[in-house]
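Final report, closing paragraph on structural work. Over the funding period we assembled a curated collection of sequence-structure pairs, and we close with a single example.
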Amino acid sequence: MNTLVIGIAGGSGSGKTTLTRRLVEEFGGYITVISHDDYYRSHDELTMEERSRLNYDHPDAFDTALMCEHLRLLKNGIAVDSPVYDYAVHNRSGRTSHVLPNLVIIVEGILIFTSEELCSLLDIKVYVEADADLRLIRRILRDTQERARSLQSVLNQYVNTVKPMHELYVEPSRKKADLVVPTFRENPVALEMLIARVRSHVLANTGNPS
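Its predicted structure, as stored:
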């Protein structure tokens, strides 16, 4: 299978998931999405309180080697069973998700461009950026509404790890990107370029333009 792999990175709350969703809406069954977040390392040996204090915004928090192994298998047409992360308990859920190979694979995550191995597997690297205040507001809304976090815990994590790790790792990885998308909702040209590239790949491999 001739697979096109697109990496979508950017700070927490920058709009990565929304951009990914927009591409999935456009091309439906031709796209498979894998999230770096699901490859957070398991910490069954720690208590809930201990896990809540870990730095989840450092590259070492992820089992990126496993993600790379899975991505290689997917590119070779082999399905994988990826871990499933549970944000409410700060740990892997113990469940897996059966992921099928596809014409287009989107790899999404804040730190995916910090790994040379992972970058070497990406055909297109997209960095989504947004104003820091906007990213914080989005993170507060997401974590309190979808991940059962308190406002205080979200703010503590932002000050202690999210902001400093963004400045140390995420923002510098921007230079690895082939395409930087600033506030893509207000930048339809970048979105149209991505859609055109994916449509060209789908058309070349299926004869179907959408």
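The mean pLDDT is 90. The chain has one domain: 4-206. We thank the funder for supporting this effort.
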